[in-house]
């Protein structure tokens, strides 16, 4: 999954990051994530005190405040898990395709998972959590292969611009198919439309437990591909000269990314732009070395989605805005900025 030719040399300012600076940023990201976790548990439509939080963490749910905290804990955990999966998935996709615009939403992979799940709901009665996860992963994989195949047509191979256009067109078409399936099914239309927005409300530890094995496998595959992704960044010919089996490396890393975004979509709906914004931000902090970039993208993605969930609860009290809406508000202008700044060249 790459375009032909040799990628331009990365900006030296992004490549060279001393070890102490990276460790410092790691501590900063962990501190921010910890603060966001505490904020997410404490803030909602109902205010709670520290006594309620401590009691709820101990398993009590007798008072209204304790019950509210008990609901927020799995919701916060789901935001962390899904944000980490999407951030890491986007970083791997950008490394595999050497495309600065790569993201599960931009490339239509989320919508492939979404269409598969909606079709399973409407036509095959797939309501088992495990079946939904497998269906979403299969849909994400088919969409990824299709977008890459379409983006590879014509002269020049799969350039960043062609992949982005193929992904946008595919996402639009798949969205239309989802609507066509949903409209005649009034019995499931409301729940599907709510899920399609993308959110972490209604989370339970049972739902998280269902997708966790898939996410852990995707995490392991992605992190183990870090060194090989560094080689791919030098160009296919040089990577092959360094002993990398380019096609195999690309396929394995892409599999890890598909597992992550497919499982995340199954449990939280198609949340876009996290995988686009996060890797670019992390490159500014730790450079382009994937051994640092991938774990940083996971942590920063978790922080971003948790922050979006907190903001969504605050700005629309006593209701809330789903995280899918807020990430779109953040990501769409960022996407335009990346296009103008990078001029859709390779990473």
UniProtKB/TrEMBL annotation:
The chain crosses the membrane at residues 23-43, 76-93, 105-126, 132-151, 163-183, 208-226, 247-272, 292-311, 323-340. It is a multi-pass membrane protein. The keyword Cell membrane applies. GO terms for biological process: siderophore-iron import into cell. GO terms for molecular function: transmembrane transporter activity. Keywords: Cell membrane, Membrane, Transmembrane, Transmembrane helix, Transport. Its main location: membrane. The keyword Membrane applies. GO terms for cellular component: plasma membrane. It is found in: Cell membrane. Belongs to the binding-protein-dependent transport system permease family. FecCD subfamily. This is Iron complex transport system permease protein. It comes from Blastococcus xanthinilyticus.
């Amino acid at each position: 999954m790459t375009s032909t030719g040799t990628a331009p040399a990365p900006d030296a300012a992004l490549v060279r990051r001393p070890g102490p600076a990276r460790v410092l940023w790691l501590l900063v990201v962990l501190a921010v994530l910890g603060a966001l976790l505490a904020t997410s548990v404490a803030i909602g439509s109902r205010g709670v005190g520290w006594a309620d939080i401590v009691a709820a963490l101990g398993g009590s749910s007798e008072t209204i405040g304790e019950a509210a905290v008990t609901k927020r804990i799995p919701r916060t955990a789901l935001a962390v898990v899904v944000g980490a999966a999407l951030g890491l998935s986007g970083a791997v996709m950008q490394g595999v395709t050497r495309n600065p615009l790569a993201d599960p939403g931009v490339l239509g992979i989320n919508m492939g998972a979404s269409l598969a799940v909606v079709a399973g709901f409407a036509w095959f009665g797939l309501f088992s959590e495990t079946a939904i996860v497998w269906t979403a992963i299969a849909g994400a994989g088919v969409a990824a292969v299709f977008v890459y195949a379409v983006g590879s047509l014509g002269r020049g191979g799969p350039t960043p611009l062609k992949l982005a256009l193929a992904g946008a067109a595919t996402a639009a078409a798949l969205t239309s198919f989802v609507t066509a399936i949903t409209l005649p099914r009034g019995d499931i239309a409301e729940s599907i439309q709510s899920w399609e927005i993308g959110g972490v409300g209604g989370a339970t530890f049972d739902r998280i437990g269902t997708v966790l094995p898939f996410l852990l496998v995707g995490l392991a595959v992605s992190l183990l591909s870090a060194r090989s992704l560094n080689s791919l960044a030098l160009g296919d010919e040089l990577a092959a000269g360094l002993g990398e089996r380019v096609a195999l490396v690309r396929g394995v890393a892409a599999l890890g990314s598909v597992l992550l975004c497919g499982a995340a979509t199954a449990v939280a709906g198609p949340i876009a732009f996290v995988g686009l914004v996060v890797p670019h931000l992390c490159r500014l902090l730790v450079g382009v070395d994937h051994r640092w970039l991938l774990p940083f993208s996971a942590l920063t993605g978790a922080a971003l989605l948790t922050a979006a969930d907190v903001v969504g609860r605050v700005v629309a009290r006593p209701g809330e805005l789903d995280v899918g809406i807020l990430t779109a508000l953040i990501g769409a202008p960022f996407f335009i900025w990346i296009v103008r700044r990078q001029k859709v060249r390779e990473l």
